[in-house]
Amino acid sequence: MGVFFKDIIGQSTVIERLRRSVDENRLAHALLITGPQGNGKLPIAIALANYLLCGSGAGDACGACPACVKLGKYIHSDLHFVFPVKKKGSGNDKPVSDDYITEWRELLLKNPYFSYDDWLAKLNLDNQQPMIYERESGEILHKLSMQSREGGWKVVVIWLPEKMREDGSNKLLKIIEEPPHKTLFLLVSEEPDKIIATILSRTQRIDIPRIAMGDVENALVARYGLSLNDAKAVAQQSAGNWEKAEEMLSVSEEKALYLDLFMKLMRVAYARNIRDMKAWSEQVATLGRERQKRLLDYCQRMIRENFIMNFREKEMIYMSQTELDFSVRFSPYVNERNIFGIMEELSEAQRHIEQNVNAKMVFFDMSLRMIVWIKNR
Q1: pLDDT in tens, 93-109
Q2: In this structure, which topology does domain 251-375 adopt according to CATH?
Q3: CATH class of 5-209
Q4: What is the DSSP letter of 164?
Q5: pTM of the full predicted structure?
């Protein structure tokens, strides 16, 4: 089913502010909804759109009228979604969101609190970086030039507008500044600083905070049947990130792969096993650029967690049990003398991957350099 205000985890202050803006007819025509990862930005944007398109005026979308039935399936003709996409081969070098609307709806119906990584996995990317292409802007202008099919509002939800090409952003400047009557733009951003300034200046910014720990605890108990003690532990480690809380409940295959690759790297570096380093590098090179970048993100997180683990502050450690089992023995190898060097090697490898440097060379070179830092304890 769709998302309504009642389905949002916590964020009661933000929801009340948005609800009052609708009820008192003072809603800005373009909102930039942003804040930390996993705080419910996209579900909040969808719930706001649903409330507007339902028009019940009863504090939330009613969930029962014909409009809400369509909204529950994400097929309402006046609710438009824009999101990063990939090319579908040589015959479609300028894709738009509607080319992937089926996949988008499937992911929303499964869990509206999905992450960018979840969307990348759904797209089944190889070496592509998804983006919002210039042609998308023309599609938006065309859709908004027509009358509302339901006779009310038209809402455009742009997820990750920072992924929009500059030529496409420029085409939308005028309509965002002066939209047609009863038209609302909702820009849901993880990195608002990467949006062009001329777009930012035409929006009203809504900063969504992290989800309160108590709200995460309550949702874990209600939705997953956790005991209060287990819910408290997960909520504490999630740090107000619902995506992270759900991830901690089930280790995905991809995360398990990253942990395995991280452990292998550290072990072969410590053993100075050049042959195994070469095999490790070749294995990582087959993952594709986006997964390679996520692996390096994961490695940096694990290095930070292992460094913090040495201070014996349990409430500051955010690792699964499987990660902890490895880190109990590995953490002494990450200390003040080598943490910055290790992190710099991982960051440099990430920069090279983003620049399309040969992956085998990047990861083999990084693994060789890691020998020096792991031995420097």
Answers
A1: 788 899 999 999 999 99
A2: Zinc Finger, Delta Prime; domain 3 (1.20.272)
A3: alpha beta
A4: B
A5: 0.70
